[in-house]
Design goal:
globular; 303 residues; binds flavin-adenine dinucleotide; 8-stranded parallel barrel
């Protein structure tokens, strides 16, 4: 299985042909805002392919997402993408957000349906005047402007998908509507991702499917999040963090080594695009990028 790059990058510390992207979330309050911007400042010189800013469940961070995107556009030369969900909102409301992204100079949207309003595991009910599916949302976005569209993909299939065929039907529908890149839910067992890629490629899905890498800042939080999203926490991962609840320094070292192992294995399988869930913290992502041979580009203007 290869993602089709002719000269494959390797573990020798050169970053030729490698591309990274980073996800951030809008800060919940002004006092944690500096944490985000310090992280952006640290990671920006690594010249990511793009960075993304999440959109809180049901649009709960609408203003803060927009504010963060606008600041990225004004204060950095990073290529930024805004996440957008259509759950619980009318088409007019969603279209308004799309226009505000456009006005802020954002031309790349990570288009998502969003979790059911009753919570994960509940039945998804579209807003009566809203976009019913992500594919509908993508068509709506493209009617407003010439946006680049990325979407989600689920190596362990989405919890609502009865099987992988259904899951890949949904991915195909999103591509047919105009998506040109997928970014996966985080995973820790690379075989799940390789099998998913094989399934997708066997169906003729050829868009890039970037692995979503989550450096484990906090194991318990990660395990809780994984339980909600249907991602598996392997026994070996739990065992590596066992007994370290009060030992943040060792935890960070373990987290770096776990993520390094994961990305090197992906690299050995011909993967050269990596999307990092930074959780607004630069340290681990920066270290892993460094291991991949990615070094600051001094010409880049940071935040
Ligand atoms: P889709 O991929 O459109 O659909 C998910 C599943 O729903 C399908 O696999 C299928 O099982 C079922 N389904 C959908 N349409 C149909 C249909 N027509 N017929 C039958 N079944 C169907 N959430 C946020 O709130 N904000 C974010 O910023 C955010 N960013 C994310 C970024 C990434 C990279 C990922 C992987 C997830 C993100 N999420 C975010 C989570 C996401 O909103 C949830 O996983 C949500 O439950 C599904 O949204 P989706 O766009 O992935 O759905």
């Amino acid at each position: 299985m290869s993602e089709g790059f002719e000269s494959r990058p390797s573990r020798n510390g050169t970053s030729d042909g490698l591309r990274v992207s980073f996800e951030f979330f809008p800060p919940k309050s002004e006092d944690v805002e500096p944490v985000l911007w310090e992280s952006i400042q640290r990671l920006a010189p690594l010249d990511p392919d793009f960075v993304t800013v999440t959109y809180g469940a049901g649009g709960s961070t609408r203003e803060r997402t927009l504010f963060t995107l606008a600041r990225l556009a004004h204060e950095t030369n990073l290529r930024s993408a805004g996440h957008l969900t259509c759950v619980g909102a009318s088409r007019d409301d969603v279209d308004q957000v799309v226009r505000s992204y456009k006005n802020a100079g954002i031309h790349h949207i990570v288009a998502l349906r969003g979790d059911p309003q009753g919570g994960v595991g509940e039945r998804y009910v579209p807003h009566p005047d809203g976009y019913a599916t992500t594919a509908d949302l993508i068509r709506g976005i493209r009617a407003i402007g010439d946006f680049e569209i990325s979407v989600s993909a689920y190596p362990e299939k989405h919890p609502e998908s009865a099987n992988f065929d259904v899951d890949l039907d949904v991915l195909q529908a999103k591509i047919d509507a105009g998506a040109t890149r997928a970014i996966t839910q985080f995973f820790f067992d690379n075989d799940l991702y390789y099998r998913y890629l094989d399934r997708a490629r066997a169906r003729g899905i050829s868009i890039p499917i970037l692995p979503g890498i989550l450096p484990v800042q906090n194991f318990h939080q990660t395990a809780n999040f994984a339980a909600k999203t249907g991602a598996t926490i392997p026994v070996w991962l739990a065992s590596r963090f066992e007994g370290l609840d009060h030992d943040p320094v060792t935890r960070r070292l373990i987290a770096a080594s776990v993520a390094a192992e994961q990305v090197f294995d992906l690299l050995d399988h011909g993967i050269s695009d990596f999307h990092f869930y930074t959780m607004n913290r630069a340290e681990l992502t920066y270290a892993i990028c460094h291991l991949l041979g990615i070094r600051p580009k001094l010409v880049k203007r940071a935040a």
